[in-house]
Amino acid sequence: SEEVIKCLKGTGMSKYDRNNGFIEITTPITETVTAENQTEGMPEGTELTRGVMLTSVSTDIIMATMDVLNRKALILEIIMVVVVFAIAGVLANVLIRPFDRITKAIMEIGNGHMDGDISVPTYQETEHISNAFNLLHNQMMNIDSSRQDFVANVSHELKTPVTILKGQLSGMLEGVDVYRDRDKYLLRSLQTTGRMERLIGEMLSISRMESGSAAVRQEPVDLSALMAQQLALDRELLEQRGQQLVSALTPGITVPADASLLGKAVGNLLSNASRYSPEGAEIRVWCGRLEGRPALSVENTGARVSGDALPHLFEAFYREEGSRNRSTGGSGLGLYLVKMILDRHGAVCTIENTEEGVKATVRF
Question: How far apart are CA 210 and CA 227, in angstroms?
């Protein structure tokens, strides 16, 4: 045997015969030369191979055991897969259930069957989703409420002048005695129509700005020149009311803005100052720098705003009881439009009471 011959030379070997199903191992049997039996050619400590132990073991039992273990392992793997899928299904159902509740609540809100907030604090994620949706839902409710209020206010604002027009025109057509002076009531009808026209124009401007369809140009605008131009347009109105105009405009104050929109904002501030001031009041207009930044102000005398009303002046259709009522002819949209225009120019308007009246300051 080749293995035996190699083993006699001192090299042990092992061999697995897969075809015949046995393992064969050759182990050398050695003897160490001692001092008593050493010779000249074999000094002490020399190992001599005296024989070979040949061991053969059948692998049939091992293979049979391996087959049994493989079958059991396969059955165990199948059982584990089934158990894992079952556990995964249960966990998935438990984990998805809170999201199903969120989905159901969102669908109910979408169908208009639920007005309150949703609360699913099962997991941190569902709580965050619930809070985010509640925030969005509240914002949408506020927008919807604002839209309804806006439509109701517009309807109310238009209903009054339409009723006046209808009554005056009907009275003139029917020849009612009180409407005999046609020129007088035609003039009133024309003024009422102008009020409606201004209201519709303001609403269209607000609608375009809220929808983003109104382009805001950014080009250098001289504030003093812009205000002087606006003052020239409003001077006749001020003179009709016997109001005095005092202006202090610093030239060379330039800001990047849309001249048309900014002129409308300044015009609304001037119109408000004149409308809510008594006859003979003084209207002061200023343009310059505050704390190194471009600024302008419009101040009226003879009238003030209550402290409770100041925070609400820039709200749409808001009018203070008393001096800021419908008898002044305002629509309640002027300052709201001013705020929208200034927001798009990165400017801020503040209104405060002074010792003599009310002052509106715009800071760019």
Answer: 25
The pLDDT value given to residue 322? 46
Instruction: Return the axis-axis angle of helices 124-174 and 60-110, rounded to nearest 10°.
Output: 20
Mean pLDDT of 233-252: 84
Which residues, 6 or more positions from 35, have their beta carbon under 8 angstroms from its beta carbon? 44
Nearest-CA neighbor of 352 among 283, 285, 306?
Answer: 306
Q: What is the DSSP letter of 53?
A: E
Strands (DSSP E) contained in 118-267 are: 219-222, 244-249, 254-257
Whole-number Å distance between alpha carbons of 122 and 101: 11
Return the axis-axis angle of helices 124-174 and 182-211, rounded to nearest 10°. Answer: 160
Backbone angles phi, psi at 65, to 5 degrees: -65, -40
What's the pLDDT tens digit per position in 136-180?
A: 777 777 777 767 766 776 776 677 778 877 877 787 777 777 666
Residue located via tokens 């001692």: 34
Q: What is the mean pLDDT of the chain?
A: 81
User: Pick from 233, 266, 265: which is nearest to 337 by CA?
Assistant: 265
If one counts every other C-beta atom within 10 angstroms of the C-beta of residue 102, the result is 17
Asked if residue 49 has pLDDT above 70, the reply is yes
162 vs 200: CA distance, rounded Å? 13
Q: How many CB atoms lie within 10 A of CB 148?
A: 10
